[in-house]
Predict the 3D structure of the following.
Amino acid sequence: MRIEQSFTVGAPPDRVWSLIRDPQIMVGCVPGCDGIEQIDETSYTAQVTVSVGPIKARFNLVIEITEEQAPTLIRTESRGEEGSRASMVKSVNEMRLTPVDEGTEVSYSADVEISGRLGRYGAGMMKKIATKLAGKFEESFRTLAEAPEEVAG
């Protein structure tokens, strides 16, 4: 399943980049993210809970930065499973920052593979849920990035 979206943030690219690269800030913007821990300069572990219909799945993820061109591009790979291995997820992600008159355009894409009990749901339903979660991320991130710096961090 491929997800592609973009949104504009009323903040300069350098500020948006510094927020994106701060895992403790991002954990508050990612819906269902319960925590994140940095393993090394380019690797993290995170716990993310996702609800699909009657199923609530908690994934233990490993996120690796595979390419970084500050302050315009970051590519990552995420992979993980539920503790019971009932569902597994793998995602290849890209985020681009482009200066625009209003601030910064944030464009992102993700190629996501889901298997196991969540993989049984149709791609249409999964994409609808992913789009809803992306909208929540955009709203949280935009609010944070557009806040005065002394408030946002």
